[in-house]
Every structure is written in C-alpha cells, then in structure tokens.
Amino acid sequence: MVVEVGYAQAWDLEACAPWRPISAEEARERDAAGLPYVVVYQEPGREAPLEVRLVSWRDHYVGLWVYDAQGRRTYDLDMRLLDDPSRLRRRYSVGWSYTDPEMAEFDKACPRITVDLFPDGRGRRTEERQGQGGGSYVTSPGLRDDERWMDRPAFGEWPLLSAQVHGLIEPPGFEAAEVAETAEPGDGHAPATCWRPPRPAQPGPINELFRPGVRVTDGYHPEMTVVEPRRVGTLRVPSGLLAVSGPDIDHGDGPRITVPVPPGEYVLDEARVRFSYHCEWRDAEVTTTEPTAVRLLVSETPAANWEMALGPDDDPRLFIEQQIAGFDTDGATGCFADAGAWDPLIALFERGLIRGESDLDGYEDIDDGSMFMQRTWDEASGGELMSFATTGDGTYPVWVGRSEAGEVIGVVVLVEGMPELLPERDGTPTDAAV
C-alpha cells in the first residue's frame, strides 16, 4: 500500500483539510524552529485522511488524529516533549467507537474511552458506555511505564502510527504528496477553524467583574449588571507571601497556592452582579444581587493582564485544552491567608469551625451576609486568615493580576463560572470583548 505524505501550516477542522500546504523542506525548517505544522497521511482514492499529525515543539506538543472512511475522527492522542528530547510522553487520549456509519462525528451517543495520564504515574481510564445501563466506568489505565513513552522519531522518519487501526499488515510505502498552490501565500494567521496547540483555561474579563455598569450573562440569566464591589474587610500578610487554598483539605505540605506580595494589610472585596428573574413560588419578578468573585486588592491600578497561579507540582507543559490548576475543596470553602503563619492559622480555623470551641482567642465567625465566613489571626506574627464560600466542591483556579511592570495588583477567585460580556447599550462591545 502506498501512502502519500503532505505537509501544511495548519489543519482546518471544519473543512477536514490542510490549510496552506507547504513543502517537506519548509516543514523541516518549521520543525527545527519549533513552529507549528501538520503532517497529513493520505491513501490515494480515499477522501478522508488516514491520520494527521500535529506538531508544535515550542508548545512541547505532538498530537495524532486518526480518521475513518467517513471522515470522522476516531482517535485523538496527545503527546508531550519534556526534559528528555529523545522521548515523548503520552499525556491524553480519546477514542470514539461509532455504532452506525451515519452517526455524526463526536455524537453524544457514541461510546468513547478517555485515558488521562498524570506526571506522578497515576492515571484515569473513563469508559462512557451507551445503550442499556449506559453511564461511565472509571478505572486505572494499567499501563506499564514503557507504554507511557514513545521514542521521538527524526523528521521524515515517523511511521504510520494508525497502520494497525486501518488493518495494514505490511508497512506502507510513503510518497511525497503534491504541494497544491495556495492563493494566499505567506505565514499569516490561521482562521479560527484551524487547529492550534492546547491551551490551559484563560482568565476571561476579570477586570470587568469589578467595574460597575458592565453587562454580563452567565448563560442562564440573559442580562446581569455589575454593581459596586462590596468591601468586606482587610487581611494582614506580614510575611509577604499570600496563601490561597482550601482550608478544609489536608495540608501536610502547606497551602496549595502561594503568591508573593509586599508585606502589608490589604482590602478584601467581592464582585457582585444584579439581575431580575421570575420567581415561580412568588409568581413575581424579583431583583437580586449575587457575588461572582472574591478579591484581595493589592493596588487600585487595573490589571494589564491576568495569569493562573500554579502550585508546586503544576507543569504547564502538560496542560490539556482548558485545563485548570488551583486549590481543591471538599467543603465549598477557600481562603486567603498569610502563608508565613499558615500552620497556626489553620489550627485555629479547625478548632473554631470543626471542633466548635467556644470563646477561642484568634477565631471569629463572620455574619455580615458576605461570602467571607471565618477569620483567624496569629498573635505572634500578626498574620491573618479569611475563609470564603465557593459555590461547590472541586478545584478553583486562582487568578493573579499584574501591572504592565509585572507587579501584583490583585488576586481573584471566581466563586461562579466566568460570565460572558454583553455589548454596551449602544451596541458596541466593551474593550475587553474586542
């Protein structure tokens, strides 16, 4: 069997076709420079590709997409180039088993198996079944260490990794595909329909959540208006290291997230939105105000950019699309605290909240209607802790706002999901939405 090998700057998911085909020589140059490119393996006479390899060394990424004769993706493999330049780590994969030739690509009724492999050797295999019983079945992947890695082939020497899937017994012969001329020469930006390397979760318009008058929607309520942030109190961080964590989780290794800030006392406030909705049990239109985020404000200067804070074990080279890092909670609770006094502050939190010790020095419940619930303080250091409610259990990312000079101006935790900006009243979008 002969397989044609072609190269392109990108892969158009909507058209299921290469975008801006390039020669093997240009692809080799992009490979050496770490720039993104794709490799397309095509069987002559077959409309859909056999597989597409997506490469971006600057993003530590190689992907493999396998297609069936109907042009549906049947397998998606995510591999990462880490510290050993000769090996690729298998990071993530999804396999779809279409039960009917007419079933649409990624149909929700299509059984699929997802394998998520973690850096510490653990992993999770999730089988989503259809039909009688349905549901998901989660197990350990059971892969040996050598099955988690692949030797990195040199450019032009990659095998057809999907050969077995396509029923090929003998290794295929490879021929260079003809490079079609493009009407748009150059290295312009690929359209939004083209593949790009995986990106972790993005911050969204955090500044706007604290700007009164901005209109947003959470997808459920069609229009919500940001109102003046509510200032709740202050937090002393004399050590110059802010902790953001779940106070209800075992903290043998200390807080999950820490952010260096100048030693000092900082304002704590809440972002809030006001909206109206129809209350069924009252059979009336009701207007209410709810919080969307909590913030430790370091400076009144608006943030020029926001970044997701990482824990000590978080490696952004391994993040899959929209992955988050943050603190975990089993009790719908987070906290801001002075990391320098973490142990005594957490001990006071547990004694006051969990053990219910009365008249405990260094602990108080907060009953002012805000998201903040408990406060503890360490007399020896002057450090403080303030806990706040989240809207549920799970992992919450911590967003650090920085000025143009890179200085921390604020630390934010969204207690709801990130709302979407709505156009201003005159129909134009806000600056952040452009």
Automatic annotation (TrEMBL):
Region Disordered, annotated ranges: 117-145, 184-206
InterPro entries reported in the protein's UniProt record: DUF4241 (IPR025335)
Biased composition (Basic and acidic residues): 119-130
Protein name: DUF4241 domain-containing protein
Taxonomy of the source species: Bacteria, Bacillati, Actinomycetota, Actinomycetes, Kitasatosporales
